[in-house]
Amino acid sequence: MSESRFIKKVYQLLLTQHGHQSWWPANSKFEVMVGAILTQNTAWTNVEKAIHNLISAGMLDAHSIAKAKQEKVATLIKPSGYFNVKTKRLQKFCEWFVIRGGHKRLRYWSTKKLREELLEVYGVGYETADDILLYAFLRPIFVIDAYTRRIFSRLGYIEGNVPYDVVRLDFESKLSTNAKLYAEYHALIVQHGKHVCKPKPNCDACSLNSICKFN
DNA sequence: ACCCAGGGTCATA
DNA sequence: TATGACCATGGG
What we know:
This protein has 215 residues and is mainly alpha-helical. Helix content is 61%, strand content 0%. The two termini are 16 Å apart.
């Protein structure tokens, strides 16, 4: 089958196995952005604790985080790990977010310009930028993460060291340009990566066996 | 005790 | 361009 059909088939199989995911788990656009930074190489359960601390302190907004003392933010986000570097990343991001007028203004920017500026913010790399673009700004950008690489490497679809944007553009070229589709697809990939396609794979419980090139 | 988690930056070659 | 060190908590 064509690569386009293959990518779409994987989506259908994952949706059948795991069901609708309704991502990103957050109560606001800004909470999505904070979560995207705090979850870098970190378990989501730890991020939830950090976000809860920010909410309890009444600090889950860009102004509060940007002008707070470094020590204050670091204490609150400690459970999410790397708290010193992540404090700097969060504050740099919030400074940029405030200067640009917040979501109210940024929502009118082109996806291209928004992505370029996000990537210039300290601590925001490709995946974090794309999480924000897709789940906070609803832009049709396909997120590539470690789970995506692991799952599609094991299926025999991609090699290990292909650059981020090469993989992203490949997926985008083989699906309709649809933010809702990308959002659901990435959520399904994470769900599958967490519970089935783990470092030690659980291939008996994998619905993708029928299309795996190594079977 | 060890491995892993919804990455990114920086120095080095 | 491409490696490697570094960042740090918490669950299994």
